[in-house]
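FAQ: What does the model actually see?

It sees only this:
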Amino acid sequence: MGMLQEFKEFAIKGNAIDMAVGIIVGTAFGKIISSLVADVFMPPIGVLIGGVDFTKLAFTIKEAAGDAPAVTLNYGNFIQSLVDFTIIAFVIFIAIKFINSLNKKEPVAPAALPESSKEELLLTEIRDLLKERK
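And it is asked to produce this:
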């Protein structure tokens, strides 16, 4: 029963729940960005470079033979994934930068020096008088 209790404590802790929520939101965010790239950014880029559909860019390594499909190197999908990654990384960078700016702490003022005792003040005055006589 001890292991079940430990698992229950782990699952109920805020860190595990926060992590699960983060993964779910991150997955949904990834789908949104993929759609943004595939449906909004890449078509105009394709038109600008001559009407190219990036998802169909491929290099055929071996032609189809009989029932065997062709072996292709789909570099267009790779280009689209790179654009997805770049946009996701940039958005996360901006979000973290914004969160860090909200969490900026005020600079801590240096602690005031403790007041000198009467003996120290007297010794300082004596030292200063001796310096003046030289």
